[in-house]
Amino acid sequence: MTRVHRAAWVLPIARPPIRDGWVEVRDGRIVAVGGAEDRPAGGAPPLDDGRPVAILPGLVNAHVHLELSWMRGLVPPGESMPAWASALIALRRSSTVDPVAAIGSGIAEARAAGTALVGDIANTTATLGPLSASELSAVVFRELIGFRVEDAGPVIAQAEREAALIPRSTRVRTALAPHAPYSVSPALLRALSTQQPLSIHLGESQAEIEFLRTGTGPWRAVLDAVGAWLPSWQAPDAGPIEYIARLGLLGPGLLVVHGVQLTGDELGRVAGAGATIVTCPRSNQWTGAGSPPIDAFYESGARIAIGTDSLASVGTLSVFDEMAAVRRLAPSVPAARILQSATLDGAVALGFADLGAITPGRRAELLAVELPAPMTSAPDVEQYLVGGVSPAAIRWLES
Ligand SMILES: [Zn+2]
Question: What is the pTM of this model?
């Protein structure tokens, strides 16, 4: 069945916004997109009878931990990232909560906030079923942790075997994610270098920089406390990007999550490798990691995607809310760039070439966002959309 959606504005992302635009969809796919001059005859009336509307692609949340949704509000903001993470570990160890109900409501919340695709980090297979039963598309990254692992083969094989046992929809794919350089052994990191996509928490806290330089500091203390320290480990005396590059991980399929501590030179290396920075500014501020250098991210030329992180360190799973946080930290970054991060760049990073933009052939996962007033310039519309849009103003278009 063919439908034509018309609206005051259409934001294809892959090209500039179209005033008085339309999108033609058939059997769930985008067939054509255009403006007033080439509108197909006999299309539907505009969506914006009464209130103006902007059509844009469903958003991409490139870093979330749906499994931790039950922790909403239970881990207070931290003074430092290691202290915050220790509180999370203690909560997880002492809890008897079944995470499944909160996973379901987290997925529903993400969907209502306009999310089409998530990069979900998982320590179990618990999110695979609920995601498959939902309308979200997903890459579920099975997180690998193991600072003492010397033989990586069995660890990787077990993660892949467990994922393979869970039936899932074609919209849900699986991948692997080493947790971080202070929690995963060099042998395990090196063994993952051929995987794409691959996600790693990197350059998140100052303590991580200290650990990689000297092998000391708060992360070393955490490893000691949980009995995971490996006495034979030698600090690489390198920054996080140099360290993972030595291990073969820095490539186009890599999602460098957080990057709060990365220098301009390091960001340049990320850009040169074709890797993606995933920024989660609300989480960074909550965990005590600090504020990410958003301006430097965009100046580096690297692909920048956006993630909310988990409900343990953020109040909502809305990518619109995360865009607003990016905007607050870097008001001079063009709103169009932020929108691209929340759509096309996230989809490319996660390997979903059929999402993230309104172009013929892509899946018609389209949002209609109510605008508060008629707008005559594209920058005004873009500016409004990155200012924080509530779920009440968002609806999904039939495809
Ligand atoms: Zn994370």
Answer: 0.96
Ligand 1: centre distance to CA 376 (Å): 39
CA of 282 to the centre of ligand 1 (A): 12
Identify residue 159 by its one-letter amino acid code: A
Q: Are the C-beta atoms of residues 109 and 308 closer than 8 Å to each other?
A: no
**How far, in Å, CA of 21 to CA of 36, rounded?**
6
Reading the block at residue 293, the tokens are 């250098």
Q: Kindly give the confidence (pLDDT) of every residue in the chain, 399 residues in length, as a single tens digit, with 9 standing for 90 and above.
A: 889 999 999 999 999 999 999 999 999 999 999 998 888 766 667 776 668 999 999 999 999 999 999 999 999 898 888 889 888 888 988 888 888 999 999 999 999 999 999 999 999 999 999 999 999 999 999 999 999 999 999 999 999 999 888 888 889 999 999 999 999 999 999 999 999 999 999 999 999 999 999 999 999 999 999 899 999 999 999 999 999 999 999 999 999 999 999 999 999 999 999 999 999 999 999 999 999 999 999 999 999 999 999 999 999 999 999 999 999 999 999 999 999 999 999 999 999 999 999 999 999 999 999 999 999 999 999 999 999 999 999 999 998
- Please name the helix (run of DSSP H) or strand (run of DSSP E) that holds residue 62, with its range, or none: strand 59-64
Q: How many Å lie between the centroid of ligand 1 and the Cα of residue 235?
A: 23
Cα 384 to ligand 1 centre (Å): 28
Cis before 197 (ω within 30): yes
Under 8 Å between Cβ of 146 and 127: no
Contacts of 180 (CB under 8 A, 6+ apart): 200, 201, 202, 204, 208
Query: Quick one: which H or E segment has residue 95?
Result: none
Q: Ligand 1 centre from 227 Cα, in Å? A: 22
CA distances from 281 to 63, 163, 324, 330 (A): 12, 30, 10, 11
Kindly give the pairing relationship between strand 198-202 and strand 254-258.
Answer: parallel
Q: What 3-state class would DSSP assign to 199?
A: strand
Q: What is d(CA 238, CA 222) in angstroms, rounded to the nearest whole number?
A: 20
Q: How far is the CA of 309 from the centre of ligand 1 (A)?
A: 5
CA of 27 to the centre of ligand 1 (A): 35
